[in-house]
Specification:
The structure holds two protein chains of two kinds. By secondary structure, chain A is mainly beta. Helix content of chain A is 6%, strand content 57%. The chains are: A mainly beta, B alpha/beta.
């Protein structure tokens, strides 16, 4: 029997990639001043997202999808603290290789609070709400059991590092890691949550099912839910370095454990612009 | 920082599951995944007395890892066809395989001849379904509806409401619901329609839902109840006209209406299709769909192999060629 095939998002790759985000900080400092300018920033990003995902409920294989990603955030920062509210969204489509065709959307909104530890490091936490939804077409004849989906609300820790290289160039890797989440995923008896599959409750007409689906969620910790987000941007300041424009690479690993687990590895490259509204 | 990285590494190692390992794309792997999926998800292995280990081994013997894609499709299709279930299917980009529920039966390819029997015709078709209603022209106290599918309540419900309101206002003395060649669709609509024929909430059947990988892992029985709706037409005799192509939600309606007092089913045994389909993607991208739950009528009978009519009558190929509809004539005369 052929050995099992680990996907590109295998554990060793993920660990190595996570550690590599800290490599820039092994190099000597180029500038004594690593503090970003205080102010109120609007940040906008647009890019391309590549996903590799598997929903065990629907498939034995990983599928690839690519498409456009968007990000919009508001950041208020001073010498000691940052508050960020943001929204991100991506829409991707699978290739035409297989019998079923998939369109996905993945998005969420978040609030993040960071405190300055030293000239390089900001630490804090975040709260987010997110969801993904995958719609299958092609040779997928059942609209009832069509979608791949999941939703979550989580809190976690976040860290951001910053290094200036002179002439307005800077680099800013960051990481977000959930610690506790409330997750909603289809039960084994999809489309019906377990609470719906009770005597006296069940109905094909599915009245009240939306509420039951939301209530069917579970609190999960790290071993059952993962939404690791790593990003690193290279920016150039302009406008007396009040604003920035640059390129950002972001990678994420979304994972729901359970009887029918789901895993999604995202890679995204974006153009990011940050405008300081403070004069 | 060191502690943080240690925690990160530990956490990443924890967040995995062996089900996320991807099988190789070989004929053996494709066959094994298909067989495993049927074994863990198909709802009728016990009812149909299918020994899946024996069936698996019988077809496994035909698998060779250097076989062509066409040959592999044929073997996997034969495996799926052992289920003899019109809901189950295997599809690739180039090919598809379904069990033919009409094997051994003659069910006419279309019922367009009904249009010559009705007057005051209203075409209420929606984007979901073909719905044609009217009165029987030789006896305008008989209301008639033909519908080719079961769409959503949201889209089809208003059409049905206007049909039932019309029947009530015309004070019809009999209703013919013609679900011949109705390939099914949304069983929600079937449950909803039964409400026009009851005065109080009425149990119309039960469901069993697959809840785990074991052959007998089910939740159920879960009773299905129809809620009364206006106008009430339960004191009007209803003829439900069926043939072998009355499949899935059409069989559900036949099964559900067994619970209603004034309903007589005439025609041919329905095509069955007593459960909902759960599709799955195999390692080579083919899609396999299997039935993952089942319905029982109020007497506890399965509808998977069809709901038998109270009065049996069938059109022959000669009737169809002559545009004659003896089934509908019998329903009118009944």
């Amino acid at each position: 029997m052929a050995p099992p095939h680990y996907p590109i998002a295998g554990r060793p790759t993920l660990v190595a990639l996570s550690l590599s985000f800290f490599l820039p900080f092994l190099s000597p400092a180029q500038s004594a001043d690593n503090a970003p300018k205080k102010g109120h920033y609007i940040e906008f990003g647009i890019g391309y997202q590549f996903q590799r995902f598997k929903d065990v409920r629907h498939s034995s294989i990983y599928r690839n999808a690519g498409g456009v990603s968007y990000r919009l955030a508001y950041r208020a920062m001073n010498e000691k603290r940052q508050h960020v509210i943001g929204i991100n969204f991506a829409s991707t489509n699978s290739n035409q290789e297989f019998a079923s065709l998939i369109s996905n959307i993945l998005g969420g909104l978040y609030y993040e609070h960071l405190r300055k530890i030293n000239n390089h490091i900001w630490l804090g936490g975040y709260y987010d709400l997110g969801a993904f939804y995958g719609n299958r077409g092609g040779e997928w004849a059942n609209p009832e059991d069509n979608p791949t989906w999941g939703a979550w609300s989580s809190i976690g820790v976040s860290a951001s590092l910053r290094k200036n290289f002179g002439n307005g160039w800077s680099i800013d890797p960051s990481i977000r890691l959930p610690l506790l989440a409330y997750t909603v995923r289809p039960a084994y008896g999809f489309p019906y949550p377990e609470s719906f599959l009770q005597e006296g409750r069940f109905s094909f007409i599915e009245e009240g099912m939306t509420k039951e689906v939301i209530k069917s969620g579970k609190f999960q910790t790290l071993n059952n839910f993962m939404n690791l987000q790593l990003s690193c941007g290279l920016h150039k300041g302009f406008g007396n370095r009040r604003h920035q424009i640059g390129i950002q690479y972001q990678t994420g690993y979304l994972f729901f454990n359970g009887e029918k687990p789901f895993a999604d590895w995202q890679n995204q490259i974006s153009i990011i612009s940050k405008f300081n509204l403070k004069k | 920082m060191k502690n943080f990285i240690s925690i990160l590494v530990l956490m990443l190692l924890l967040s995995c599951n062996n089900d996320l390992i991807e099988p190789k794309n070989t004929p053996t792997a494709v066959f094994e995944e298909a067989s495993k999926y049927i074994k863990e998800n198909y709802a009728y292995l016990t009812l149909k007395q299918l020994n899946w280990t024996t069936i698996h081994n019988k077809h496994k013997a035909k698998i060779q890892d250097n076989m062509s894609e066409e040959s592999l499709f044929a073997v996997c299709a034969d495996l799926m066809l052992e289920l003899k279930d019109g809901h189950c299917y295997l599809s690739s980009k180039q090919n598809s395989s379904y069990y033919d529920i009409t094997q051994g039966y003659y069910a006419q390819p279309d019922v367009s001849s009904v249009l010559s029997f009705i007057t005051d015709t209203k075409d209420l078709s929606t984007s979901n379904s073909e719905i044609v209603s009217g009165l029987i022209s030789t006896n305008t106290s008989i209301g008639y509806v033909y519908f080719g599918g079961f769409g959503s309540i949201a889209l089809d419900g208003p059409a049905w409401q206007s049909i039932m309101d019309n029947f009530k206002s015309k004070n019809v003395k009999k209703i013919i619901l013609d679900i011949r060649n109705n390939g099914g669709g949304n069983p929600q609509l079937a449950q909803w329609l039964c409400g026009f024929f009851v005065k109080t909430p009425t149990v119309i059947g039960s469901m069993f839902q697959k809840s785990g990988k074991g052959q007998n892992d089910f939740i159920g029985p879960l009773t299905l109840t129809t809620q009364p709706r206006q106008p009430y037409l339960g004191d009007v005799p209803v003829i439900l006209l069926t043939n072998r192509r009355s499949f899935s939600a059409a069989s559900y309606l036949s099964g559900m209406m067994q619970a209603l007092p004034n309903v007589t089913q005439m025609g041919q045994i329905t095509g069955g299709g007593g459960g909902g389909v759960r599709p799955f993607e195999l390692p080579n991208g083919w899609v396999l769909g299997v039935t993952a739950n089942y319905f029982l009528d109020v007497q506890g009978n399965h509808i998977e192999e069809g709901v038998s009519p109270d009065v049996k009558i069938e059109n022959t190929p000669q009737d169809f060629a002559a545009k004659k509809d003896r089934m509908l004539e019998a329903a009118i005369a009944f």
